[in-house]
Amino acid sequence: MNTTANKYSEIIKAEAKRLGFLSCGISKAEFLEEEAPRLENWLNNNMHGEMRYMENYFDKRLDPTKLVPGSKSVISLLLNYYPHEFQNKDAYKISKYAYGRDYHFVIKDKLKELLSSLQDEIGDFHGRAFVDSAPVLDKAWAAKSGLGWIGKHSNLLSKKTGSFYFIAELIVDLDLEYDTPVTDHCGSCTACIDACPTQAIVEPYKVDGSKCISYFTIELKDELPSSYKDKFDDWMFGCDVCQDVCPWNRFSKPHNEPLFNPHPDLLENEKKDWEEITRETFNEIFRKSAVKRTKFEGLKRNISFLKE
After folding, report:
1. What processes does the entry annotate via GO biological process terms (predicted)?
2. Would you say the C-alpha torsion 72, 150, 228, 43 has a positive or negative sign?
3. What values do phi and psi take at 82, rounded to 5?
4. Is 132 a catalytic residue?
5. pLDDT in tens, 213-267
């Protein structure tokens, strides 16, 4: 056993815990052999819809050493976002991950702090932080690092905490002690497949992104397709259906990150309030939220589609 690698790994995991990450796993930075044909097939079948950016950097998506030259290890981190309180029952719905401050900023700051404190403890090494917006296959790395398994809804699942968490990475040029993947515990359950309002989970472990409510309400800039009328289950931004019905999410516990707490109006608003939302109110409620991605016009479009 490489004692230095072991010692560094222990330091990294302890520091991640101190900063409030739910868990931390480490894997060797190398080509993702199993993911390559899967990603190619998914793209060839146009399951990314209008998300053309998914076609970019194909090689870098599959090989972190091409993304971060000299890298040896991928440190995967989970950050819980399961809320303490939920929206009014009579409301158009927003995905739980977007209740509070935009996670990109919250996690980026935590990763910078983690990188800086590790460099203080370990010494000089090179590393880059990634949160969702770079060509990194987050879920594949988290699964490889033993943080959970990829469920039939294609989200990462953990027996202890379900799936309501963000995934982020540090890709570093350190040799570390590597974790091993865990086994799949979906069994014969098909709750997520049965519940998906748009039948986007086309087969176990395969989601057609171009049929997903999250895709329609966030990514699609064009008009929403009339063939999906009455199938959005009142979701105006994102969708949590496949996670809400998953038995493993019985074990979700509320987060302890104040920045993820929502604006009070987000919880209290009823359908009528959302239908009458002004640009000013939108900016107030979603000032630093991920909902800004769809913009005021996008949210109004989604609400009109649900209301008609």
Report:
1. tRNA queuosine(34) biosynthetic process
2. positive
3. -60, 125
4. yes
5. 999 999 999 999 999 999 999 999 999 999 999 999 999 999 999 999 999 999 9
Using CA atoms, how far apart are residues 214 and 184, in angstroms rounded to an integer?
25
Nearest of 244, 292, 241, 283 to residue 265 by alpha carbon: 283
Q: Which of 63, 132, 173, 184 is catalytic?
A: 132
φ and ψ at 112, to 5 degrees?
Answer: -60, -40
How would you class 246 by CB atoms within 10 Å of its CB: exposed for 0-12, middle for 13-18, buried for 19 or more?
buried
Q: From CA 108, how far away is CA 154, in angstroms rounded? A: 24
Q: Which residues pair with 157 in a beta bridge?
A: 149
The runs of H, that is alpha helices, within 49-159 are: 58-62, 64-67, 103-122, 138-144
Residue written as tokens 């064009």?
Answer: 222
Domain ranges for the chain, please list them: 3-84+96-172
Domain 3-84+96-172, what architecture? 3-Layer(aba) Sandwich (3.40)
Q: Which two tokens stand for residue 45?
A: 């079948």
pTM assigned to the model? 0.95
- Residues at the binding site for cob(II)alamin are 61, 132, 156, 167, 214, 239-240
| Matching residue, tokens 């079948």 | 45
- For 76, half-sphere exposure in the C-beta direction (CA atoms, 13 angstrom radius) is 28
Residue ranges at the known binding site: 61, 132, 156, 167, 186, 189, 192, 196, 212, 214, 221, 239-240, 242, 246
Binding residues for [4Fe-4S] cluster: 186, 189, 192, 196, 212, 239, 242, 246
pLDDT digits (tens, 9 = 90+) for 68-104: 999 999 999 999 999 999 999 999 999 999 999 999 9
Annotated binding site for tRNA: 221
Rounded to whole angstroms, the Cα distance separating 112 from 104 reads 12
Class of residue 203 by CB neighbours under 10 A (exposed 0-12, middle 13-18, buried 19+) = exposed
